[in-house]
Task: structure prediction
Amino acid sequence: MTSKILAPFMLGLAVAAGAAFAAPAAVGQAAPTFSASDASGKRVSLADYKGKTVVLEWVNPECPYVRKHYDSANMQATQKAATAKDVVWLSVNSTHPSHADHKTPAEMAAWTQAQRAAPTATLLDGDGKIGRAYGARTTPHLYVVDGRGTLVYAGGIDDKPSANPADVKAAKNHVNAALADMAAGRAVAQPVTRAYGCSVKYGDS
Result:
């Protein structure tokens, strides 16, 4: 029984759900502020985008769940739909430098370009400060911050917790739904959903 429970964590997979993975950043409260260097070396702060909606996407190119959404072009399509409406999209890589999955800024920039991804910026969070502040547990893990700086969504990109790209077609995209609610002046109908994917590779992972 014990081995079955621990197996997903030994494989580096996790599902962020329930009290065990309660995020330090709470929906309905002020989003944690941060400042970090992007893949080009530019310093980026959440405060730079005051008044705008900001999406935070935790990413690790080596994660099969991340590859699901990039290989199917689902993540890129979600990014482009958001940024076309003046939403800021920040991809965040919190993989610790000591982990085999770590990417240098140049490697992250090259990967992002190769994927034809469209984030506003890709941030390197090797010390895990941003990830821990938001309680990011999986890649991908998505958060939406409104123009007032309030966290209004936290969870998965969709409702199909698998690594199979074919599942994207039948999935409900929670991020698109949250942004649509906001654009219509409504409260986000599902402000918290289950995040799924690989565990974020923090320094103690």
Notes: The chain is about 25% helix and 20% strand. The chain has one domain: 2-199. The longest helix spans residues 74-83.
